[in-house]
Each structure stands twice: as structure tokens, then as C-alpha cells.
Write a structure and sequence with these properties.
This protein is of the alpha+beta class and 648 residues long. The chain is built from 20 helices and 33 strands. It folds into five domains: 60 residues, Beta-grasp domain (Ubiquitin-like (UB roll)); 171 residues, Threonyl-tRNA Synthetase, Chain A, domain 2; 245 residues, BirA Bifunctional Protein, domain 2, CATH 3.30.930.10; 35 residues, no CATH class; 94 residues, 3-Layer(aba) Sandwich (Rossmann fold), CATH 3.40.50.800. The strands form eight sheets. Strands 16-20-21-28-25-24-22-23 form an eight-stranded mixed sheet, sandwiched between helices. The chain has a five-stranded mixed sheet with strand order 2-1-5-3-4, sandwiched between helices. The structure holds one RNA strand of 75 nucleotides. Belongs to the class-II aminoacyl-tRNA synthetase family.
Length: 648
RNA sequence: GCCGACGUAGCUCAGGGGUAGAGCGCUUCCUUGGUAAGGAAGAGGUCACGAGUUCAAUUCUCGUCGUUGGCUCCA
């Protein structure tokens, strides 16, 4: 007999060789119908895998993340089977589950495939799925595995097998289909009731561009048709929130081929919104004793040679600007930090002066690969809400915490509630590739971990993910649709102070090297606005939104009174407009709704007589009529409630 | 940069070897209206650009540029 520990802590005895499915049946038939795989001692196994020893067992359904993964991985097998039947001779490579489904990388040889072929592949998959073919995992010897794939003329699988150990190689069969696979499958293909192929894309064998290019087919599948429908609706919703679409509709920004790809043009509304964000942060930074600096958009190439950026990124950057002076070269600024280092160097410092905090909304230019450009989230010219803090190693701890406070303040003010942090530390196995003393790294890593803990951040630690010049803390926010985005970053840097030979005089009358902190709560203004757009769906917080209120007059007769109201609002610094076109009220309301204006002010005969205004909120709520003063107070209160002052 | 898809009016998109359509927007006129589209008329396009095939190309082929989904990259 073996003892199985279930997630609720209960321990049950079973005969050795019992399968997870039998365990499920012993609990309830309903459970047995729903489980699609299992996890035994933290290893994913099939529901039919006999268990031979004591251990803990988790039964997985499609609702569990790991269950989903096995479901999607199994679907990849099914897709491969369908594709192999329709395109005989294609070479399969790998077919894993990913966060939103699965893919299979296939060498299609001479076949061409496009999304027009998807419906018939989907049909074939469902047809095959209905056969309820069991997924059967079996061990094969390395020699047999190799000879099987050599005979199949599949060099990719052969390469994969060559890197595996004999005795650890398993094949998975279902129906007439065989695949190299380590396992973790659903019981049979019949569970797959809905499939949708999403896209084809090129992908290199093993992710290396020197290798042959394969065709990656992405798909998603579900146990119920209804779930597929819901998923597709979610995608539709995401599409509606796409910042590129909203940016166009709300007239925030645009691009022009004439100007150049990846170079955003901010339209008046977008520019004003961005400035509002900037002054919001400037105010907080002033409170936190940052000094604003301004540096030029270009710098002598030697500056970036000194910083090391030229060596590392020069090749892929905008090419140097030459001048009539022989040998003189300038670069478009790819980073603000070298400039700030030079500002630091312009005077001598005592430990009593530190920390020094230089902040700049610095526009930088990077020649991102053309295929990587994407709306405002990946561009070639963007403005960082950059700042560099020069401090003594002893001040690092406190400074880091202060930066976290600032980042949290920014997130709170903008309604990002669901975020996580990632602490990136050194690779303990390979400490030689990092610059800076052991002692300082220890200090910095401890400082970050302490700060994260003390500030109550939800964080994960990634060892080996630190930059060569220092550890860092990145913030990932989730938008309204649960998608994760990296925003703010705080990085410790030992490298630049070294390269620029930055110094301060310590209390011991000796010169010492300061530590630098790079930080950007927004990351970049472009990226941040994009994410904010997707997060809010274009319904910005009142303090930020381009148009807080719009006056809709019932007819031209009320134009004078409307204008009077408009100027009253403007006197109170409320961003209001007046729609005095000769359109019906219904139409004006519809357009204001689509432009996502938070408050609509309706003015007609009644309002003019009463010397009041009627308010409709975005979304349809009728707030009735009120004096202008009351409305002004309402707006101010709402802004104040969402936007607290930053205090250190 | 690489692979696939796409590029038609300011915007969203239909069409298709015989040289172009809708809705919205815009202009003018009528209408003066009460909480998500009032009516009419009009202007607006070398069908991304360049070459090729063809009697004829916006349509087919190739190339370029751009957009887009991925891959690789991201100071």
C-alpha cells in the first residue's frame, strides 16, 4: 500500500500502481470527469500513470494553470497529427504550451501555409479529437528513438534526442501519431472540444537566426465551445483597448512615414496629457529633493565611448553625425546618464553634499530593429522620466526606499493597483562577470531585498538577471485585461561612476566613489501613456483627461449663456469645450460619449432660466441640474480625492 | 534584421484584368432640437511607390517602403 497526500492535507492509502484517475474516482465521479492531468511530487504526470510510492498528489483540471498547460500541450500533438495528415512529409520540431495556448514549430518543406488554411486544419483536428484517442506515453531506448527519426528523415528530432540521456526518452502515441515527448497529457483527444488556430509566424530552430527558419503555428483550445467564445470575446475587448486604435480615435498621437518609422508625433491633446503627467511627477520629485537638469539631444561620440554604450550598442544605433570638422562625431543621445555624470563632475563633492539627485525628462534615440517597433510601446525616439542619484554606499539603502515610495505614489495616483516587482540579483555561480566590489554588491542586493520587504511589495527574486553593472528592481503592472507590462525600474550602478571616475571626499579626507541609482517610475512617457491607455480603455482619471467637460447646448438660442458657463469653467481651470454645432443633442451626446469626456453639460431653456447647468456623466448617469459653482467643486473634489500630494 | 499577412477617400472598410464604392468625418443648405446618430446636396482617391506580364493592371508577378502577427534584440 502507498500513502497519497492530497492538497487538503488528507492522507489516503491506495494499492501501489494506483493511477491519479483511480484516486479521483475514489473521491467523486464528478471530479474524475473533470481532471485532465495530475501533479505527483511536483512532477506533471498523466491521469493514467501508475503511482508506485508515497507522495503528494494534486489532481488538475482545465481550471488549473498547470492543467491548462497539459491541455494545450496535448492540443499541440493533435494539431501536429492533423497537419501531418494534410501535409505529408513536413518535419515536426517542438510543440509546447504557452501562456495563451500552444504552438508547434514545423518545417513545412515546400508547402506554403497561411491563415486561410486554418479552418480546414481546425476541422481536421476536431474530427480527429472526436475519436477519443488515448495519449499513451512509453519509454524508448535512445537507439530506437534515433533510428525512428532517422527513418522519418527528421533532423530536428534527431538533434533533440542526441542531447537526451538514454533511459529518459519517451514517445507519446495517440491514434496513429507518434511524437517525442516527455509527457504531461490529458487522458484522450476527446477532451478537446474547441480549437482555433491563431496565427502563423516564422521562428528559428532553437531560436538562433543562423539556423533554418521554421513555421510556427499558434493555436488555442478548450474543453468547451463556450470557453473559446469567451476567449475570443476577451481578445475583441483587448483590441478595443489597443492604444494604437485609441490614440488615433482620441487624437493623442500619430505617426508619419515622412517623419520616419518609430518616431511618434504627439497631437495637441496627447501632448497636453503628457505634460500633465510630467508636471505631476516633477512636483513629486521636487518634494523628494530632486534637481531638474537639462541636457542636449546629442553628445560627442567620446562621451558614449567612455560610458561603454558605444561599444555595446554603437553598431545598432543611429549612425554618428559628422561635422565639417574632420574626425569629429556626435551621436543622438541614447542614454541620459553619461550627460548627468558630466554634470556631477562639473563640481567637487563632499560626502555632506550627497545624495545628489538629477532629474530630466530626457529624450533619447535608439535604432530599434524595424520588426520590433510597436505603437508607442516600442519606438525609436522617446522621453525617459529619468533621474540619477549619486550617493555614498551607506546611503543606498535609504535612497532605494525613497525611490520605491515615489514609484508607489505614481502607481497609486494612476490607478495601477495590481502590480508585482522583480528583484534581479547576481548569478552566484559566476560572479566574475560583474563589475564592482563584492562588498558593495552584497550591500546593494541586501538594500533592495530589504526595501522590497519593508515596503510590502509583492516580489519575485530572479538570480542571474542583474545587469553587469548592478542589481535592479523592476515593476510589472497588470492592465485591466490581466496582461503584464514592465513599467518603472530602479537600478543600482557601479559601472558608470567607475568609468567617469566620479568622486566625493569622505569624512576620512580620502576620495571615494559614489554609487549611482538610475530610476524611471514611468519608464518612458511614450510607453507609459500607451499602457495607461490600455489600462483605462481611454477613460483617463479626471485630473489627466484631455477634456474634463463639454458643454452641449440644446439649440443655438443658448449660445450666449453657454459661453458664459464656458468662461466660468475656464476661470476655474477646468478643461472644458463648447460644442455649438447645429446638431441634435442626441448626436452631441453620442460623440462626447465616444470621445470619453467624463462630464457633459447640457444647457437649454430651463438651465438659462434657472442660471444652472445639467450634468450627464460619461456612461449615462444623470446628475440633474446644479449651479456652476457646485459643479466646479465637484470636479475639484474628485481630482483631489484621486490625486494626493506626495510626501517624503 | 528574418518569416507570414496586409496597404483602396481624413477614418473604418467593401470590391476586383476593362481605369472605383459604402458608412463616418468635411463643406453648403434645410431643421432649432432635452440625454448615444434629424434631413438634403456637394467636395474628396495616380487604389503605398517602382518595374514586369498583358491590347488593357488598382486587380496578376517581382522589388521597395510602410503597417501588422511572430522570431531575434531591448542601455
Amino acid at each position: 500500500m502507498i500513502k497519497i497526500t492530497l492538497p487538503d492535507g488528507s492522507i489516503k492509502s491506495f494499492e501501489a500502481g494506483t493511477t491519479p484517475m483511480e484516486v479521483a474516482k475514489s473521491i467523486s465521479e464528478g471530479l474524475a470527469r473533470n481532471i485532465i492531468s495530475a501533479k505527483f511530487n511536483n512532477k506533471i504526470i498523466e491521469t493514467s500513470t501508475p503511482i508506485q510510492e508515497d507522495g503528494s498528489l494534486v489532481l488538475l483540471s482545465f481550471n488549473d494553470n498547470e492543467g491548462k498547460k497539459t491541455f494545450w500541450h496535448s492540443s499541440a500533438h493533435l494539431m501536429a497529427q492533423a497537419i501531418l495528415k494534410m501535409y505529408p512529409g513536413v518535419k515536426l520540431t517542438i510543440g509546447p504550451a504557452v501562456d495563451n495556448g500552444f504552438y508547434y514549430d514545423i518545417d513545412f518543406m515546400d508547402y506554403k501555409i497561411s491563415d486561410a488554411d486554418f479552418p480546414k486544419i481546425e476541422k481536421k483536428m476536431l474530427e480527429l479529437a472526436r475519436g477519443k484517442h488515448e495519449f499513451k506515453l512509453r519509454e524508448v531506448s535512445k537507439a530506437d528513438a534515433l533510428s525512428y527519426y532517422k527513418q522519418e528523415k527528421n533532423p530536428y528530432k534527431v538533434e533533440l534526442i542526441e542531447n537526451l540521456k538514454d533511459g529518459e526518452i519517451t514517445f507519446c502515441n495517440h491514434d496513429d501519431f507518434t511524437d517525442l515527448c516527455r509527457g504531461g497529457h490529458i487522458p484522450n483527444t476527446g477532451f478537446i472540444k474547441a480549437v482555433k488556430l491563431m496565427s502563423v509566424a516564422g521562428a528559428y530552430w532553437r531560436g538562433d537566426e543562423k539556423n533554418p527558419q521554421l513555421t510556427r503555428v499558434y493555436g488555442v483550445s478548450f474543453p468547451k465551445q463556450k470557453q473559446l467564445k469567451e476567449y475570443l470575446e476577451l481578445l475583441e475587448e483587448a483590441k478595443k483597448r489597443d492604444h494604437r486604435k485609441l490614440g488615433k480615435e482620441l487624437k493623442l498621437f500619430t505617426f508619419s512615414q515622412q517623419v520616419g518609422q518609430g518616431l511618434p508625433l504627439w497631437l495637441p491633446k496627447g501632448a497636453a496629457l503628457r505634460e500633465r503627467l510630467e508636471s505631476f511627477l516633477k512636483k513629486a520629485q521636487a518634494e523628494a529633493a530632486y534637481d531638474q537638469v537639462v541636457t542636449p539631444h546629442i553628445g560627442n561620440k567620446d562621451l558614449y565611448v567612455c560610458s561603454g554604450h558605444y561599444e555595446k550598442y554603437g553598431e545598432d544605433s543611429f549612425q554618428p553625425i559628422n561635422t565639417p570638422n574632420e574626425g569629429e562625431e556626435f551621436l543622438l543621445k541614447p542614454m541620459n546618464c553619461p550627460h548627468h555624470c558630466e554634470i556631477y563632475k562639473s563640481e567637487s563633492w563632499s560626502y555632506k553634499d550627497l545624495p545628489v539627485r538629477y532629474a530630466e525628462f530626457g529624450t533619447v534615440y535608439r535604432y530599434e530593429q524595424s520588426g520590433e517597433l510597436h505603437g508607442l510601446t516600442r519606438v525609436r525616439g522617446f522621453t525617459q522620466d529619468d533621474a540619477h542619484i549619486f550617493c555614498t554606499p551607506d546611503q543606498l539603502d535609504l535612497e532605494f526606499k525613497k525611490v520605491i515610495d515615489l514609484v508607489l505614489y505614481v502607481f497609486n495616483s494612476l490607478g495601477f493597483e495590481d502590480f508585482t516587482a522583480q528583484v534581479s540579483l547576481r548569478d552566484p555561480e559566476n560572479k566574475t562577470k560583474y563589475i564592482g566590489s563584492e562588498e558593495n554588491w552584497e550591500k546593494a542586493e541586501k538594500a533592495i531585498l530589504n526595501a522590497a520587504k519593508e515596503k510590502g511589495l509583492k516580489y519575485v527574486v530572479e538570480t542571474g538577471e542583474a545587469a553587469f553593472y548592478g542589481p535592479k528592481l523592476d515593476f510589472m503592472v497588470k492592465d485591466a485585461l490581466g496582461r503584464s507590462w514592465q513599467l518603472g525600474t530602479i537600478q543600482v550602478d557601479y559601472n558608470l561612476p567607475e568609468r567617469f571616475e566620479l568622486e566625493y571626499k569622505g569624512s576620512d579626507n580620502e576620495m571615494h566613489r559614489p554609487v549611482m541609482i538610475h530610476r524611471a517610475p514611468f519608464g518612458s512617457m511614450e510607453r507609459f501613456v500607451a499602457i495607461l491607455l490600455e489600462h483605462t480603455g481611454g477613460n483617463f482619471p479626471l485630473w489627466l483627461t484631455p477634456e474634463q467637460a463639454t458643454i452641449l447646448s440644446i439649440s443655438e438660442k443658448y449660445e450666449n449663456y453657454s459661453k458664459k458657463v464656458l468662461s466660468l469653467l475656464k476661470n476655474h481651470e477646468i478643461r472644458a469645450t463648447f460644442d455649438n454645432r447645429s446638431e441634435t443633442t442626441g448626436k452631441k451626446i453620442r460623440e462626447a460619449e465616444m470621445n470619453k469626456v467624463p462630464y457633459m453639460i447640457i444647457i437649454g431653456e430651463k438651465e438659462e432660466e434657472e442660471n444652472s447647468i445639467s450634468i450627464r456623466k460619461h456612461g449615462g448617469e444623470d446628475l440633474g441640474s446644479m449651479p456652476v459653482e457646485e459643479f466646479v467643486n465637484r470636479i475639484n473634489n474628485e481630482v483631489d480625492a484621486s490625486l494626493s500630494k506626495f510626501r517624503v
